[in-house]
Amino acid sequence: MTTLLIRGGHLIDPAAGVDGPKDLLLKDGRVAEIAGPGKIKANGSEILDATGLTVAPGLIDMHVHLREPGQGYKETIASGTAAAAAGGFTAVAAMPNTKPVNDSPEITRWMQAAERGACIRVFPIAAATRGSKGEAINDFAALKSAGAVAVSDDGLPILKDSVMRETLAAAARVGLSVIQHAEDTRMTQLSGGVASMNAGPTAFRLGLRGWVNEAESSIVERDIRLVQDLRDARAHLHVAHISTAAALAAVRQARRNGLRVTCEVAPHHFLLNDEHVGMYDTNAKMCPPLRAEADRVAMIEGILDGVVDAIATDHAPHAVHEKEVEFEHAPNGITGLETALGLSLRWLHKEGKLPLGRVLSLLSAQPAALLNLKGRGTLAVGSFADVVIFDPKAEWTYNARATKSKSRNTPFDGWKMQGKVRWTISEGRIAYVSA
Amino acid sequence: MTPTTTSARRPIHPPSAPASLFPYNPGSLLSASDLTLEGISHILTRATALENQDPLTRNRILAKRRVALLFYESSTRTRTSFELAAKALGADTTLVSSLSSSIEKGESLKDTGLTLRALGAEAIILRHNSSGAAWLLEAETRLPVLNAGDGMHEHPTQALLDLRTILAHLKPGTHMVGPETLAGVTVTIVGDILHSRVARSNMLLLPRLGARVVLCGPKELLPEMAANAGPGIIIERNFEEALKQSQVMMMLRIQAERLAGLQLDLEEYKLNYQLTGPRLAALAPTAIVMHPGPIIRGLEITAGVADGPQSVILEQVTNGVAIRMAVVERALLTATAQGARA
After folding, report:
1. How many CB contacts within 8 angstroms connect chain A with chain B?
2. What does each C-alpha distance from A108 to A111, A140, A166 come to in angstroms?
3. What is the pLDDT of residue B13?
4. Torsion sign over Cα A376, A312, A193, B301
5. Are B150 and B226 in a shared domain?
6. Does A200 touch chain B (CB under 8 A)?
7. Could you give all domains of chain A from N- to C-terminal order, each with its CATH number?
8. What is the mean pLDDT of chain B?
9. What is the pLDDT of residues B298-339, one digit of tens each?
10. What's the first-to-final CA gap in chain B, in angstroms?
11. Nearest-CA residue of chain B relative to A411?
12. Which of A254, A319, A374, B296 maximizes the CB count within 10 A of its CB?
């Protein structure tokens, strides 16, 4: 394997406490050496000139939908990871709502096989229950040894208290976190119609059925009670794509009480509110839905004050024809891998004055810790050579038509971004280089 | 990390939502709020002119032009009056309903619209059970689309025919309307506001002409946020209090098909909200009584009131044809190059 020398860049590695001009030598898929500018001899290595650029641990998205197996027309592991690499990601955690559901070691291994053509690392999140039906718990030890990094029935929350309790306990025994999509479907999916956006004045005006905040917060509160009960077992609950102020307040309180309760927030939930549905824009339809302005502001506050542990995209590709339908019939979800860094730098760093290291930590070191990904989320010597090199000052405009994803269902088409990725390096190999 | 207080909040204001994401064909009528007061006056004026015109000259206005009626929901009044209106102007009409068409085989709204356009349709009249369907159809076909009811959202021609009915009784002879035309007039809309596209379109239209719109109903059918839907709208839960203030009573059907598991005690509903002869005589002896239909006699309104002297329910139906003639004419004769909302 060739060695890579990254020269002239500014290294920001929050986990290692590094923020300064450094050169990096990558060898055999690992970080071999870090030294001051010009201190490392090239010795025949390929040289990447990072002058004026930021060098950071590769980004980690702990919540994506890669659609394989089963829905390759929306995305494949190859296309999804190509989009991820273009967005600066070197690892993604793939949710199990595939067809069939990833509830077995076989599918978990299949997703990681070289034949899938991933250009960065894919870490499967396995289904918590058989078929994600919320009844029978899977064999977590077997799933973990096949490579699963967490368990979740994402999209189909575990409603039964007894099943969720057992899931938390069983996952704790093998050292996995339970990621819950918090939605009480008894409140959002009624016989006469499914809620398709946030409940509130906009939903009333548009004549759409509304998803009330309590459907999220009540599940988060229930889950926290279960974690409290399982305190001695050190159960870890991670709340996926948190979207309401009430649920975030519950997480904040649980943390003060010393519980292992963490959460992630998606860029669309801290940047957009329910008015962005406009006149039935299906690219503003996702689950949980865009919320009221007060909830959006609460997500920003949660990021700034540290209760939010990670920024995750909930990258959910859908084919054009699936979104070109009546709003209430459109599938939930938007793509996000190519816009997460640009939006986070533009709005959290530039406008919100959140230090660059904090933003990068939310996108790398913290998700690595939540998923227990050893040797990732940092560039300390000996770590995996997962690196993103970007121009932190560059402003650019996102063009969804140029995406590397198979889908382009994004509300951020045409938005101004900050921070352009120049190279993404996955375990020492260049996975993406900008044109 | 220690949580900060709200005083440390740094405001982050990303771009707000764009006003409209769709191109707009100036002949379309999607929402009651799309029309300017001049546009409303034009439709009212043309409705009367067309109604009074000799049928043999009238049917040359849109001679052999093609209008498609695309109906995903059953309808008696709206469908028949649109069809009669288009035919009265000489247009050829064709009806496509979700039953007995390829929609049953899973053809999408987009493909159905493109197919109708390829067959020569110059305008599409759409009734659909999903809110927002008319916007989608317009965006995909770029044809003038007339929204004949989209889910729980809007029914703009119903609001226009309701306006024509109200004007005929309260301001006879008025066609040119302005912001004061209905000043001092209280219109109470009673019943299942949550699921009603008729209520939404009237709530958007009537206050712009100076009317005060009172919404009345139980909270299951009338959430508080309805009062924020626009200016000039208030909520009055007490039916008799609302009745006392009103010159116009607009009664709505409870939409059992859209209740979505909502439990409603119909006996209690009748006790509190049914428009009965004694209530009307005691509290609003001169008000007109309207209903967009279909009526469920003995539920929201008694048979006696529906058939009584204050009822203008059948006039509403008749006015539907005149209004829809004006709206179909506008759809086909408004130059698409005009660009602005007429």
Report:
1. 119
2. 5, 12, 22
3. 83
4. positive
5. no
6. yes
7. 4-54+384-433 (2.30.40.10), 58-370 (3.20.20.140)
8. 91
9. 999 999 999 999 999 999 999 999 999 999 999 999 865 444
10. 57
11. B17
12. A254
